[in-house]
Specification:
single chain, alpha/beta, Collagenase (Catalytic Domain), 3 domains, two-stranded antiparallel ribbon
């Protein structure tokens, strides 16, 4: 058996220092309700926090996740949007926004946010899993994206003095350094000598992999070979990618207007979703997995066998070669429901290979394990299955010692109060541990050993994972 070590929410930041302790107590109280799936009760307390600290990032993110779990996706997106207005690079909000748009079938917009989250945190398995699902969905089900309302505040009238072309030409020719060029442009934008319309941007920036691309465009612009509109696009790209650092504080009016436009955009998406025959493939498949298992509970679970002794299972066979025991275990692998999002059956061979490489001892002699897959339950020494049912508080897996049944949980409710699937690596680790029991190994006190009795699983799709 392997037990669960819970995750702790880190970096909970509160805006008002004078009420920090009171807000922390409220946040912890709300989060306890949240973790038990009581999202509405949690939101009541989160709202108390937001009355004192309206832009509290941690609280807004938790509300966003809660609404997402309640399938109130527009409300969820509004929480994450408010976070991004204050912290445009907040990975959790970027991920939540990407998932939210995916839940509404707005896949292109979803992918934009997921790619930004991936840029900010490129090694995050959860982001990668969602990105993969949305990319596959886009290929399978093309659709017409919802048009965004026009932000008239961003329709700045272009202002570019003719002599700026000389600076662009000098930079493109290498006569001035990158720093001198960007410093010059920063100064002119701040002083409003140059005014760049924010709405003129590249639709696809995949090809913009290097600054030389922009330098070449500026060369053409300085020679009047391309229009000012192309200059605007390149300048906006330099600003977005922080080659030119512009810290222009938005007014309250601008922030409220952008929120108004976002709300209108969501309304249009919901209208389109209702009127179109739009296929919705929800990015988080965790709930669908439960439904698949519930359709034929007895087929996918060995609950009754687990409760019985393993004495009726045949014992493994062995032979001694050169004073080494070669112990052969026949393994029956239970079927899995079709269409599961994560392939655990193929990773089972990694668990087999792990133990087949380990040198063991039995009767004071060397021993090696050999696994053989059998289609016959009657011949098998060990039955292996993956389950979604509750196999015990904080329990990730279960196995009889020496022979019998191995059960490995595919997920739990401990991340955010809703059922969430573990990632492939966590399930493989649990399986390897439980197989260790099935070949007769007990727990160990060595935390680095696979047979240590507890671990913290990672999740495949949990927004708080």
């Amino acid at each position: 058996m392997i037990a669960f070590i819970s995750h702790n929410e880190e970096n909970t930041v509160f805006a008002q220092e004078q009420t920090r302790e009171q807000l922390k107590i409220l946040f912890d109280e709300a989060t306890e309700l949240f973790q038990n799936g009581n999202y509405n009760q949690a939101n009541t307390i989160y709202d108390q926090i937001l009355e004192s600290s309206p832009n509290n990032i941690s609280t807004l993110n938790m509300k966003g996740v809660g609404y997402s779990n309640m399938e109130q996706h527009a409300k969820s997106l509004k929480q994450f949007y408010k976070v991004l207005q204050n912290d445009p690079e907040n990975v959790k909000a970027l991920l939540g926004t990407g998932v939210g748009f995916g839940n509404l079938g707005e896949y292109s917009e979803s992918l934009k946010y997921l790619k930004k989250a991936d840029e900010m945190n490129p090694n995050n398995t959860i982001i990668q899993n969602y990105k993969d699902i949305i990319e596959k969905t886009l290929k399978k089900y093309p659709y017409t994206p919802t048009e965004k309302p026009t932000n008239t505040m961003k329709q700045t009238i272009s202002k570019i003095p003719e002599w700026v072309k000389h600076i662009a030409n000098w930079w493109s020719m290498g006569d001035i350094s990158d720093k001198k060029f960007t410093d010059s442009m920063q100064y002119m934008i701040k002083k409003e000598i140059v005014m760049i319309p924010e709405n003129e941007k590249f639709e696809n920036t995949n090809e913009l992999k290097m600054i030389s691309f922009v330098r070449n465009n500026f060369s053409q612009w300085s020679q009047n070979d391309i229009p000012n509109k192309e200059f605007h696009k390149n300048m906006n790209w330099l600003i977005e990618n922080k080659f030119i650092k512009i810290d222009l504080q938005k007014t309250t009016e601008e922030i409220e207007y952008e929120k108004y436009l976002f709300d209108r955009y969501l309304q249009k998406i919901l209208q389109n979703k209702g009127s179109e025959v739009r296929y919705i493939e929800y990015p988080n498949p965790s709930q669908d997995v439960i439904k698949k298992f519930l359709r034929d509970v007895e087929k996918w679970n060995f609950e009754s066998e687990v409760e019985n002794s393993s004495a009726e299972f045949p014992s493994p066979t062995y032979e001694i070669i050169d004073e080494t025991y070669f112990i052969k275990y026949k393994i029956y692998i239970n079927e899995q429901p079709q269409g599961l999002p994560l392939d655990h059956t193929s990773t089972l061979k990694n668990s087999f290979e792990f133990w087949e490489k380990v040198e063991l001892k039995t009767n004071d002699q060397d021993a090696r394990i050999i696994f053989e897959i059998t289609p016959s339950k009657a011949d098998a020494n060990v039955w292996v299955t993956w389950v979604v049912r509750d196999i015990g508080e904080g329990v990730l897996g279960h196995a009889h010692l020496g022979k019998g049944v191995v059960e490995v949980a595919l997920g739990d409710y401990n991340c955010d109060g809703s059922f969430q699937l573990y990632d492939v690596k966590s399930v493989e680790t649990i399986m390897t541990h439980e197989l260790g029991h099935s070949i007769g190994l007990p727990h160990t006190n060595d935390k680095e050993n696979i047979m240590y009795p507890s671990m913290t699983p990672s999740y495949a799709y949990c927004l708080l994972g």
